[in-house]
User: What shape does this take?
Amino acid sequence: MGSIKAYVFRIIAAAIVCSIAGCLLKDKTPSGRMVHLLCGILMSITILSPIAGISFQNLTNIYSSISLDAEQYVTDGKKAAQEDAADIIKSQTEAYILDKAKSLGLQIAVEVELDVSNYSVPCGAVITGAVSPYAKGTLETYMQEQLGIPKENQQWN
Amino acid sequence: MPEDTESFSEGLFYIIRTAISAAHPSLANVSGICLRLIVTILLIKILSGISDEELSAVRLTGAVVIGLLLLDPINSMIRLSTNTVTEMTEYGKLLLPVMTAAMAAQGGTTSSAALYTGTVIFSTFLTTIITRLIVPALYIYLCICVADSAIKQEMLSKIRDFMKWLMTWSLKIILYIFTGYMSITGVISGTVDASALKAAKLTISGVVPVIGSVLSDTSETILVSAGIMKNAAGIYGILAVVAIFIGPFLEIGVQYLMLKLTGAICNIIGNKQTVSLVNNFSTGMGVVLAMTGTVCVLLLISLACFMKGIS
Assistant: This one.
């Protein structure tokens, strides 16, 4: 409110100055016309002065800060989505491996590793449990061909 | 907002009902002011009628009395409007990051960044213009209206008209540019995001059979979930913006309509000069209404664009 009051007072002061100048000089004389013109310019500048107060440097800084914020929020959103997707893919892949193991009559625990940089594709697995050589071979082939987990990245404990 | 409703329309009607009941005291208050205004204008007319020539003292006194009657309510409405604008802008600062993150999770990385940047820049700019230009200009406009009514000067009328033009057009231009920006951004960045999503789907479908379908289903699930979350946040956001806006809007709107009505009644019974002062004050009240409405419309357009999502 303080700045508004100051603005109103500036306008009133400019109007008083213009009125006094207008009273002192008659409009029809060349100097009177000049003063009339100057008064018009003074009034316009006073009225439009808040526009000059808007700093464009400030706006540029605001733009950079807003752009950085936008990037941050987008990154946060993408990261949250990727983490959720990774959780689902990991649990589903583990469920597929456990299903296959169950069909082979195995009791195992499995921990799948994901390649986060490549759409969270499974890239490795740690399998724990007692497994016969035949069942191990079948499960190894299944994981490589159906789930894309190379044999060298399958760790058997 | 009701806690036990899942319906958008129910929530909206609840907000409107509450706002209407809250606007009743304001209606009673402004009715009293308008009644005093009509009586004052009638008195001025009677006093002017005593003399054949219009008395400048009567005109001056009339302008001052009408100004005093109307400056207080319009001043409180300007304060209410600026507070509402600030509240809506602050709420936007909380809501927009949520919408941006949800839209990015849905695959709209380019669109969400562009929409967020555009909305925040325009709302910051609009708030700055309102507080630093329109509100001071409105006070000047009202002072000039009273002065013009009191001393009848052509120059004052011209400045008054210029002020009115400046206030209404600055609001209109900002809204036009914002709407244009949102439309163009929606089309361009939406297409970019749609292409990126299509490319990602093609890449995923090329992966080994079983895991390919797992990836595809998962990405679909994530996109749908993010969409549901975004729309839920958007709907509650719209309701919240409307809840902030509707009370002050009705209060200012009631005062605006009552002033218009008073102006219409005074046209029959009053002097041209005094009636035009009432009409000019109602125009000022209209600017206050437009100020609040523009910020609300800007936020609602932005939320609608976020909710529309990727084409």
Helices of chain A lie at 2-24, 30-53, 56-103, 133-147. Chain A touches chain B through 43 residues (CB under 8 Å). The first strand of chain A starts at residue 109 and ends at 115.
